[in-house]
Protein backbone atom coordinates (compact mmCIF):
# COMPACT_ATOMS: atom_id res chain seq x y z
CA UNK A 1 0.00 0.00 0.00
CA UNK A 2 1.34 3.42 -0.98
CA UNK A 3 2.40 5.68 1.86
CA UNK A 4 0.44 8.90 2.40
CA UNK A 5 2.20 12.27 2.46
CA UNK A 6 2.37 14.41 5.59
CA UNK A 7 3.48 17.52 3.70
CA UNK A 8 0.40 19.51 2.76
CA UNK A 9 -1.57 18.57 5.87
CA UNK A 10 -3.00 21.35 8.02
CA UNK A 11 -2.77 21.27 11.81
CA UNK A 12 -6.30 19.88 12.03
CA UNK A 13 -5.38 17.05 9.64
CA UNK A 14 -2.20 16.29 11.56
CA UNK A 15 -4.25 16.12 14.76
CA UNK A 16 -6.44 13.51 13.10
CA UNK A 17 -3.33 11.54 12.11
CA UNK A 18 -2.11 11.68 15.71
CA UNK A 19 -5.40 10.43 17.12
CA UNK A 20 -5.72 7.63 14.57
CA UNK A 21 -2.21 6.42 15.39
CA UNK A 22 -2.58 6.49 19.18
CA UNK A 23 -0.40 9.56 19.65
CA UNK A 24 -1.08 12.48 22.03
CA UNK A 25 -2.85 15.41 20.39
CA UNK A 26 0.12 17.74 21.04
CA UNK A 27 2.30 15.66 18.71
CA UNK A 28 0.39 17.19 15.77
CA UNK A 29 1.97 20.57 16.51
CA UNK A 30 5.35 18.87 16.84
CA UNK A 31 4.89 17.27 13.42
CA UNK A 32 3.87 20.62 11.94
CA UNK A 33 7.04 22.18 13.36
CA UNK A 34 9.20 19.47 11.81
CA UNK A 35 7.45 19.70 8.44
CA UNK A 36 7.06 23.46 8.00
CA UNK A 37 9.58 25.15 10.29
CA UNK A 38 12.52 22.77 10.42
CA UNK A 39 11.50 21.33 7.04
CA UNK A 40 12.79 17.79 7.52
CA UNK A 41 12.79 15.19 4.77
CA UNK A 42 12.02 12.04 6.78
CA UNK A 43 9.98 10.94 9.78
CA UNK A 44 13.17 9.63 11.42
CA UNK A 45 14.31 13.24 11.80
CA UNK A 46 11.32 14.09 14.04
CA UNK A 47 13.38 13.35 17.11
CA UNK A 48 11.03 14.71 19.78
CA UNK A 49 8.52 12.02 18.79
CA UNK A 50 9.16 8.73 20.55
CA UNK A 51 10.74 5.89 18.59
CA UNK A 52 7.47 4.00 18.98
CA UNK A 53 5.43 6.83 17.53
CA UNK A 54 7.87 7.41 14.67
CA UNK A 55 7.77 3.73 13.79
CA UNK A 56 3.96 3.69 13.91
CA UNK A 57 3.76 6.82 11.76
CA UNK A 58 6.19 5.42 9.19
CA UNK A 59 3.94 2.41 8.62
CA UNK A 60 1.42 4.56 6.76
CA UNK A 61 3.08 7.91 6.10
CA UNK A 62 6.13 9.64 4.69
CA UNK A 63 7.11 13.30 4.55
CA UNK A 64 6.47 13.24 0.81
CA UNK A 65 8.95 15.65 -0.77
CA UNK A 66 10.11 15.29 -4.38
CA UNK A 67 13.07 17.16 -5.86
CA UNK A 68 12.71 18.89 -9.24
CA UNK A 69 13.41 16.55 -12.13
CA UNK A 70 14.77 19.25 -14.43
CA UNK A 71 15.69 22.92 -14.45
CA UNK A 72 16.44 25.60 -17.03
CA UNK A 73 18.38 28.72 -16.01
CA UNK A 74 18.09 32.04 -17.80
CA UNK A 75 20.85 34.58 -18.30
CA UNK A 76 18.80 37.02 -16.20
CA UNK A 77 18.81 34.70 -13.17
CA UNK A 78 15.33 33.28 -13.64
CA UNK A 79 15.14 29.49 -13.18
CA UNK A 80 12.28 27.29 -14.36
CA UNK A 81 11.95 24.03 -12.40
CA UNK A 82 10.03 20.96 -13.47
CA UNK A 83 8.44 18.96 -10.63
CA UNK A 84 7.06 15.42 -10.89
CA UNK A 85 3.48 14.95 -9.68
CA UNK A 86 0.83 12.23 -9.73
CA UNK A 87 0.59 9.63 -12.49
CA UNK A 88 3.83 10.53 -14.24
CA UNK A 89 2.95 14.14 -14.99
CA UNK A 90 4.98 17.32 -14.47
CA UNK A 91 4.33 20.92 -13.48
CA UNK A 92 6.44 24.05 -13.54
CA UNK A 93 7.59 26.50 -10.88
CA UNK A 94 9.57 29.59 -11.83
CA UNK A 95 12.07 31.24 -9.48
CA UNK A 96 12.51 34.97 -10.18
CA UNK A 97 15.24 36.83 -8.25
CA UNK A 98 15.09 40.62 -8.31
CA UNK A 99 17.54 42.55 -6.10
CA UNK A 100 16.43 41.90 -2.49
CA UNK A 101 13.29 40.02 -3.57
CA UNK A 102 12.88 36.47 -4.80
CA UNK A 103 9.48 35.36 -6.10
CA UNK A 104 8.37 31.82 -6.87
CA UNK A 105 5.57 31.33 -9.38
CA UNK A 106 3.88 28.01 -8.55
CA UNK A 107 1.36 25.72 -10.26
CA UNK A 108 -1.92 24.40 -8.90
CA UNK A 109 -3.01 21.99 -11.66
CA UNK A 110 -1.71 19.76 -14.42
CA UNK A 111 -3.11 21.50 -17.46
CA UNK A 112 -6.06 23.88 -17.21
CA UNK A 113 -9.76 24.06 -18.11
CA UNK A 114 -9.79 27.76 -18.97
CA UNK A 115 -8.35 27.36 -22.49
CA UNK A 116 -6.71 30.80 -22.81
CA UNK A 117 -5.55 31.02 -26.42
CA UNK A 118 -2.23 32.67 -25.49
CA UNK A 119 -1.21 30.05 -22.92
CA UNK A 120 0.58 26.74 -23.54
CA UNK A 121 -0.92 25.28 -20.36
CA UNK A 122 -4.38 25.77 -21.85
CA UNK A 123 -3.34 23.66 -24.83
CA UNK A 124 -2.55 20.77 -22.49
CA UNK A 125 -6.19 20.78 -21.41
CA UNK A 126 -7.02 19.68 -17.88
CA UNK A 127 -5.52 16.51 -16.40
CA UNK A 128 -5.62 16.84 -12.61
CA UNK A 129 -5.65 19.21 -9.68
CA UNK A 130 -2.55 19.11 -7.50
CA UNK A 131 -2.83 18.05 -3.88
CA UNK A 132 -1.86 20.57 -1.20
CA UNK A 133 1.33 18.55 -0.74
CA UNK A 134 2.22 18.75 -4.44
CA UNK A 135 1.69 22.50 -4.42
CA UNK A 136 3.71 22.98 -1.25
CA UNK A 137 6.47 20.69 -2.52
CA UNK A 138 7.32 23.31 -5.15
CA UNK A 139 8.37 25.56 -2.26
CA UNK A 140 9.86 23.03 0.15
CA UNK A 141 11.94 21.26 -2.52
CA UNK A 142 13.12 24.45 -4.21
CA UNK A 143 16.92 24.93 -4.33
CA UNK A 144 17.60 28.19 -2.52
CA UNK A 145 14.19 28.22 -0.85
CA UNK A 146 15.63 30.17 2.09
CA UNK A 147 15.87 33.23 -0.18
CA UNK A 148 12.17 33.31 -1.06
CA UNK A 149 10.29 36.49 -0.20
CA UNK A 150 7.08 36.00 -2.19
CA UNK A 151 4.93 33.27 -3.74
CA UNK A 152 2.47 33.81 -6.58
CA UNK A 153 -0.13 31.27 -7.72
CA UNK A 154 0.32 32.20 -11.37
CA UNK A 155 1.77 29.02 -12.82
CA UNK A 156 -0.05 26.16 -14.50
CA UNK A 157 -3.76 25.83 -13.82
CA UNK A 158 -6.58 27.97 -12.42
CA UNK A 159 -6.05 28.24 -8.64
CA UNK A 160 -9.73 28.81 -7.89
CA UNK A 161 -10.60 25.60 -9.74
CA UNK A 162 -8.57 23.87 -7.00
CA UNK A 163 -9.56 26.22 -4.21
CA UNK A 164 -9.69 23.73 -1.33
CA UNK A 165 -6.06 22.75 -1.77
CA UNK A 166 -4.90 26.30 -2.56
CA UNK A 167 -6.52 27.54 0.66
CA UNK A 168 -4.90 24.69 2.62
CA UNK A 169 -1.49 25.77 1.31
CA UNK A 170 -2.29 29.39 2.13
CA UNK A 171 -3.18 28.34 5.68
CA UNK A 172 0.09 26.43 6.09
CA UNK A 173 2.12 29.34 4.72
CA UNK A 174 0.54 31.93 7.03
CA UNK A 175 -0.25 29.99 10.24
CA UNK A 176 1.92 30.41 13.34
CA UNK A 177 2.35 26.62 13.42
CA UNK A 178 3.38 26.69 9.74
CA UNK A 179 5.66 29.03 7.84
CA UNK A 180 4.39 32.07 9.73
CA UNK A 181 4.40 34.29 6.64
CA UNK A 182 2.42 37.48 6.25
CA UNK A 183 -0.42 36.93 3.74
CA UNK A 184 0.96 39.96 1.90
CA UNK A 185 3.77 37.71 0.67
CA UNK A 186 1.24 35.64 -1.30
CA UNK A 187 -0.68 36.50 -4.48
CA UNK A 188 -3.39 34.26 -5.89
CA UNK A 189 -4.34 34.67 -9.54
CA UNK A 190 -7.65 33.81 -11.18
CA UNK A 191 -9.70 34.35 -14.32
CA UNK A 192 -12.57 35.14 -11.97
CA UNK A 193 -14.70 32.15 -10.95
CA UNK A 194 -17.41 34.15 -9.20
CA UNK A 195 -18.44 31.88 -6.32
CA UNK A 196 -14.89 30.76 -5.60
CA UNK A 197 -13.60 34.34 -5.84
CA UNK A 198 -16.02 35.41 -3.13
CA UNK A 199 -14.90 32.49 -0.96
CA UNK A 200 -11.25 33.35 -1.52
CA UNK A 201 -11.70 37.00 -0.55
CA UNK A 202 -13.56 36.07 2.62
CA UNK A 203 -11.20 33.22 3.60
CA UNK A 204 -7.80 34.90 3.47
CA UNK A 205 -5.99 38.23 3.20
CA UNK A 206 -3.65 37.37 0.32
CA UNK A 207 -3.28 39.70 -2.65
CA UNK A 208 -5.54 38.91 -5.60
CA UNK A 209 -4.59 39.16 -9.27
CA UNK A 210 -7.32 38.83 -11.89
CA UNK A 211 -6.45 37.67 -15.40
CA UNK A 212 -8.37 40.24 -17.41
CA UNK A 213 -6.43 40.72 -20.68
CA UNK A 214 -9.20 42.65 -22.41
CA UNK A 215 -11.30 45.76 -21.72
CA UNK A 216 -14.69 44.26 -22.68
CA UNK A 217 -16.42 40.88 -22.36
CA UNK A 218 -16.59 40.56 -26.15
CA UNK A 219 -12.84 40.95 -26.61
CA UNK A 220 -12.07 38.85 -23.56
CA UNK A 221 -14.13 35.96 -24.91
CA UNK A 222 -11.83 35.79 -27.94
CA UNK A 223 -8.79 35.36 -25.69
CA UNK A 224 -10.30 33.47 -22.74
CA UNK A 225 -13.06 31.04 -23.73
CA UNK A 226 -13.94 30.65 -20.04
CA UNK A 227 -15.40 34.16 -20.22
CA UNK A 228 -18.57 32.47 -21.48
CA UNK A 229 -18.97 30.70 -18.13
CA UNK A 230 -17.21 33.17 -15.86
CA UNK A 231 -18.30 36.61 -16.99
CA UNK A 232 -15.97 39.51 -16.24
CA UNK A 233 -19.05 41.64 -15.62
CA UNK A 234 -20.23 39.36 -12.83
CA UNK A 235 -16.67 39.01 -11.51
CA UNK A 236 -16.27 42.79 -11.29
CA UNK A 237 -19.61 43.01 -9.47
CA UNK A 238 -18.22 40.64 -6.83
CA UNK A 239 -14.99 42.63 -6.47
CA UNK A 240 -16.87 45.90 -6.00
CA UNK A 241 -18.48 44.52 -2.84
CA UNK A 242 -15.13 44.45 -1.01
CA UNK A 243 -12.67 47.07 0.18
CA UNK A 244 -9.25 46.84 -1.52
CA UNK A 245 -8.12 50.32 -0.51
CA UNK A 246 -5.90 49.26 2.39
CA UNK A 247 -3.19 46.61 2.73
CA UNK A 248 -4.61 43.91 0.46
CA UNK A 249 -3.82 44.57 -3.21
CA UNK A 250 -6.13 43.95 -6.14
CA UNK A 251 -4.43 43.86 -9.51
CA UNK A 252 -5.52 43.04 -13.04
CA UNK A 253 -3.22 41.17 -15.40
CA UNK A 254 -3.35 42.51 -18.95
CA UNK A 255 -1.21 40.75 -21.55
CA UNK A 256 -0.92 42.99 -24.59
CA UNK A 257 -1.30 41.70 -28.14
CA UNK A 258 -0.57 43.69 -31.26
CA UNK A 259 -3.76 44.88 -32.94
CA UNK A 260 -5.98 43.04 -30.45
CA UNK A 261 -6.14 44.96 -27.16
CA UNK A 262 -3.49 47.68 -27.48
CA UNK A 263 -5.32 50.70 -28.93
CA UNK A 264 -6.16 53.92 -27.15
CA UNK A 265 -9.82 52.96 -27.52
CA UNK A 266 -8.98 49.82 -25.53
CA UNK A 267 -7.26 51.95 -22.89
CA UNK A 268 -10.29 54.24 -22.61
CA UNK A 269 -12.64 51.27 -22.30
CA UNK A 270 -10.41 49.68 -19.67
CA UNK A 271 -10.55 52.83 -17.53
CA UNK A 272 -14.34 52.79 -17.84
CA UNK A 273 -14.51 49.07 -16.98
CA UNK A 274 -12.40 49.45 -13.82
CA UNK A 275 -14.05 52.66 -12.65
CA UNK A 276 -14.54 52.74 -8.88
CA UNK A 277 -12.13 49.91 -8.09
CA UNK A 278 -9.00 50.52 -6.02
CA UNK A 279 -6.58 48.52 -8.15
CA UNK A 280 -3.54 48.44 -10.36
CA UNK A 281 -3.09 47.09 -13.87
CA UNK A 282 -0.04 45.00 -14.69
CA UNK A 283 0.74 45.20 -18.39
CA UNK A 284 2.48 42.03 -19.53
CA UNK A 285 4.60 41.41 -22.59
CA UNK A 286 3.41 38.43 -24.59
CA UNK A 287 5.89 35.57 -24.82
CA UNK A 288 5.21 34.04 -28.22
CA UNK A 289 4.11 30.41 -28.31
CA UNK A 290 4.23 27.99 -31.26
CA UNK A 291 1.52 28.20 -33.93
CA UNK A 292 -0.11 31.32 -32.53
CA UNK A 293 -1.12 34.33 -34.66
CA UNK A 294 -0.79 36.61 -31.61
CA UNK A 295 2.16 38.98 -31.57
CA UNK A 296 3.79 41.05 -28.83
CA UNK A 297 3.41 44.82 -28.63
CA UNK A 298 6.33 47.22 -29.00
CA UNK A 299 7.94 48.80 -25.95
CA UNK A 300 6.83 52.23 -27.14
CA UNK A 301 3.19 51.15 -27.48
CA UNK A 302 3.17 49.55 -24.03
CA UNK A 303 4.65 52.69 -22.48
CA UNK A 304 2.05 54.86 -24.19
CA UNK A 305 -0.76 52.57 -23.00
CA UNK A 306 0.61 52.56 -19.43
CA UNK A 307 0.99 56.32 -19.29
CA UNK A 308 -2.53 56.90 -20.61
CA UNK A 309 -4.05 54.61 -17.98
CA UNK A 310 -2.10 56.21 -15.15
CA UNK A 311 -2.96 59.72 -16.33
CA UNK A 312 -6.65 58.80 -16.28
CA UNK A 313 -6.79 57.37 -12.77
CA UNK A 314 -5.79 53.71 -13.21
CA UNK A 315 -2.29 53.06 -11.87
CA UNK A 316 -0.47 50.81 -14.35
CA UNK A 317 2.94 49.16 -14.51
CA UNK A 318 4.80 47.18 -17.15
CA UNK A 319 5.93 43.88 -15.75
CA UNK A 320 9.58 43.17 -16.46
CA UNK A 321 9.97 40.36 -18.95
CA UNK A 322 12.03 37.52 -17.53
CA UNK A 323 13.41 34.22 -18.78
CA UNK A 324 12.69 34.56 -22.48
CA UNK A 325 15.67 32.32 -23.29
CA UNK A 326 14.38 29.32 -21.26
CA UNK A 327 10.95 28.43 -22.66
CA UNK A 328 9.59 31.36 -20.66
CA UNK A 329 5.90 31.11 -21.53
CA UNK A 330 3.94 29.24 -18.89
CA UNK A 331 3.48 25.58 -19.77
CA UNK A 332 6.02 25.25 -22.57
CA UNK A 333 8.62 23.16 -20.73
CA UNK A 334 6.05 20.92 -19.06
CA UNK A 335 4.17 20.43 -22.34
CA UNK A 336 7.26 18.91 -23.92
CA UNK A 337 8.00 16.75 -20.85
CA UNK A 338 4.40 15.55 -20.44
CA UNK A 339 4.15 14.64 -24.14
CA UNK A 340 7.35 12.61 -23.92
CA UNK A 341 6.34 10.88 -20.71
CA UNK A 342 2.71 10.26 -21.71
CA UNK A 343 2.66 9.73 -25.48
CA UNK A 344 -0.71 9.45 -27.17
CA UNK A 345 -1.57 5.92 -28.09
Topology (SSEs and partners):
Elements: E1 4-5, H1 11-20, H2 27-37, H3 51-58, E2 61-62, E3 70-73, E4 79-84, E5 90-98, E6 101-105, E7 109-110, H4 120-124, E8 128-129, H5 132-140, E9 150-153, H6 163-174, E10 186-190, H7 194-203, E11 207-211, H8 217-223, H9 232-239, E12 250-256, H10 264-273, E13 280-285, H11 299-311, E14 315-318, H12 332-341
Parallel strand pairs: 1-2, 6-9, 9-10, 10-11, 11-12, 12-13, 13-14
Antiparallel strand pairs: 3-4, 4-5, 5-6, 7-8
- In terms of DSSP E residues, the strand content is 15-25%
CATH architecture of the largest domain: Alpha-Beta Barrel
CATH superfamily of the largest domain: Aldolase class I
Give the low-pLDDT segments: none
Give me a quick take on this structure:
This protein is of the alpha/beta class. The chain has helices spanning 11-20, 27-37, 51-58, 120-124, 132-140, 163-174, 194-203, 217-223, 232-239, 264-273, 299-311, 332-341, and strands at residues 4-5, 61-62, 70-73, 79-84, 90-98, 101-105, 109-110, 128-129, 150-153, 186-190, 207-211, 250-256, 280-285, 315-318. It folds into two domains: 4-62, Orthogonal Bundle (DNA polymerase, domain 1); 70-341, TIM Barrel (Alpha-Beta Barrel).
Keywords for this structure?
about 350 residues; DNA polymerase, domain 1; TIM Barrel; 2 domains; ten-stranded mixed beta sheet; two-stranded parallel sheet; 12 helices
Explained architecture:
With 345 residues, the protein is an alpha/beta fold. It folds into 2 domains: 4-62, DNA polymerase, domain 1; 70-341, Alpha-Beta Barrel (TIM Barrel), CATH 3.20.20.70. Helices cover 33% and strands 18% of the residues. The protein is built from 12 helices and 14 strands. The protein has helices spanning 11-20, 27-37, 51-58, 120-124, 132-140, 163-174, 194-203, 217-223, 232-239, 264-273, 299-311, 332-341; strands at 4-5, 61-62, 70-73, 79-84, 90-98, 101-105, 109-110, 128-129, 150-153, 186-190, 207-211, 250-256, 280-285, 315-318. The radius of gyration is 21 Å and the shape is elongated.
